[in-house]
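Cross-posted from the bioinformatics board.
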Amino acid sequence: MRDERLCEIRIVLIGVGNIGRRFLEVLDRKADLLGARYGLAFTVVGAGDSRGAALDPGGLDIPTLVRIKMDGRSVAEYPGRGRQGMAPLALVQQVEADALCEASPVNLKDGEPGLSCIRAAIGKGMHVVTPNKGPLVLAYPELIALARERGVQLLFCGAVAGGLPAINMGQRDMAGATIDRLEALPNLTTSFILDKMSQGLSYAGALAEAQAQGCAETDPSLDVEGWDAANKLVILANSVLDMPATLDDVSVEGITGVTAADLERAKAEDRVIKLVASAVRQEDGTYSLTVAPTPLPAAHPLARLSGQQMGIVYHTDIYGTISAAILEEEPIPSAATMLRDLLSIYRS
Amino acid sequence: MRDERLCEIRIVLIGVGNIGRRFLEVLDRKADLLGARYGLAFTVVGAGDSRGAALDPGGLDIPTLVRIKMDGRSVAEYPGRGRQGMAPLALVQQVEADALCEASPVNLKDGEPGLSCIRAAIGKGMHVVTPNKGPLVLAYPELIALARERGVQLLFCGAVAGGLPAINMGQRDMAGATIDRLEALPNLTTSFILDKMSQGLSYAGALAEAQAQGCAETDPSLDVEGWDAANKLVILANSVLDMPATLDDVSVEGITGVTAADLERAKAEDRVIKLVASAVRQEDGTYSLTVAPTPLPAAHPLARLSGQQMGIVYHTDIYGTISAAILEEEPIPSAATMLRDLLSIYRS
């Protein structure tokens, strides 16, 4: 039963996996609060996964979508509303919606299917919220220009450090400042592994434990070789530092070469080794971008973060040194960032 | 020479002391950047202090204002534009401006002169930015309702923890969440004193050092008895937790009773005593508000903060646990918060 006093926002969701499905769960759990606090009702008019789509202008039932995905099936099996084999892009093109929530798997080769969906949605005048790094790393300047041109918003506060509002702080709260330096621990896997290694495990043992706990992929190279952190640094450079950087601009060293001896030597100097993504302002106003294992002094705001925390530090000229961290024990905060972005757009 | 391509924002500044004067310095230093980055030019059309005012619709010269105040004089002595004895309220009433920057001394008895100036400015349809706790603690619900009614913004991101965007994070980045608990170290003086005491100084010795360094008032009671932290907690409750709290709702205990033995006992348990302002959500949705010396476990995000840092932790249902801290070694960040607020209003 639709409440006529609420403002209805029609959304289409691409990607109903770990992040997308949990986003739906958050939406469902928060429906009453969103109505009462903000006067908003979000209706899912379309959802697409790798096998097909479901669409209904009157709104899909969120618990049904969640149950289908929990059963390992495709949204294409949504009773009476499913479309086997319908591609995400076709769904975005066909559906009438106000906003695209793009949570398809991260693809750093060509950004698909997210990139095309985002382009199409912006082209149709839809707002876009996404934690998907791929399209942002590959096409940030193009997508932001397109959004400006069409007068819509492209928000992605979940793309850098899970639920931590690292980008929002940089874009909004550092307004007017010159950011002299930025340091981030945006990758949980490497923090977890280094944490375990500092407790005495070998690199291989720590990696195995990370994999067993689901915090490292079977092929961990994206994380342990530093590329995930580098991707996030590219997004920070583009969105916060106003520098149209690409991966080619980042000097990247992962943690695979970090030894027990390195960790012990750091400890003896009251330091902790973390995989730090940093941007240091140069005289010409651009930033030197680096991802590397870095021995941080114990008093450094990022030194004390555990293997379940991500963090960022902004060193500025007029706002002092501001740090922030998140303890994210499950993926709900990362999923909820799409709600945060939607509320940035729609709350009055 | 005015640049015609810039959007001119006319501001009036009440209070040209530690915060107000530094705000002017920041505005001056940032004029080129604000024009280039945001297309904005801020013109100070009026300034008032306790002895008088200066006003010029064409804009007062900021370096002249700063020099007059550095000399210990009143803005009323501004060459050709000064008005001896003109009250702040009269200035606000008389001047044509877009925004009021209110930085008069904190007055927790009746909020004056800030409160009347803010009321008058909002009544005239001006936006207001202020780090002044007095009017907010005494009249938050009234002022916010008035601002809504007039369609203007009342922003005060500097009222709680200096340059830390604690309120912005709470209002914007926790959108959609239920905040289960909030903890803050919003008072530098008590952090400094407890820090020194943990290094072996007596309470009296630590207080004397704080006073010598200018980080405690001659009469330190507002800080050491916990009332400054309580005031900030009231502002957080009203602005972030949506609870129309007053000081009467806060249980307040200062640090005057903290002994060396307390600190040692805490240390033996790997804890650190801090003056924590906390809000804990009750079953009825309201919050239990407390300011008290609290032994924090070493792993607590606020435990490691030094005597020059302020911090906040939000414990939420959907965004995990998010903490933030600022290292503020001089009052520039607190002063710059008025610029942050102005940019929140005027940047497009």
